[in-house]
Amino acid sequence: MTTLLFNKPYGVLSQFTPEGDHQTLAEYGPFPRDVYPVGRLDADTEGLLLLTNDANLLHRLTEPKFGHERTYWAHVERVPSDQALAQLASGVIIGGHRTRPANVRRLSEEPPLSARRVPIRFRKNVPTSWIELRLTEGKNRQVRRMTAAVGHPTLRLVRVGILFLTLEGLRPGEWRELTATEVRRLEDVVGRPGRRLT
Hints:
18% of the residues lie in helices and 27% in strands. The protein contains 4 helices and 11 strands.
């Protein structure tokens, strides 16, 4: 079985199939032929994406009932108050559904990320700040919808962690295979490898 970590750049689709004029994963290979993305990140969201050919891992990490943790850094408009952060942590209503409780904190300084190749559009008179969110669900555009619901639209969004796996050492567009130690730790969480995807 093969599982990879990929640092998906801004503007890239989480798929191999061409679509419009977007870049896809195919332009960052060559990847092993039979791996597929575990879930997805929107084109305008950057960061950690897993690719695997392990059917059990794919199922366990995409099935909502298993609720594995994902960590995001969100660059938002204005500085969220303690009340806004508490709202995000306790859950907000998006699409008629209350989000699960999350761990949310304000970052004291800008995180060490590579510059985005497409500049972020700032409003000169509006301050910005960074927050970290650790979620156990992954609804469509969830972080963006959550921050907008408490009055702090997201300007840039980066997924920096999935469970214990992080972006450390990977620049945008780079990927690597999991180490033997990481594979064992992942198996402790999701179970032994299942059948190979075909």
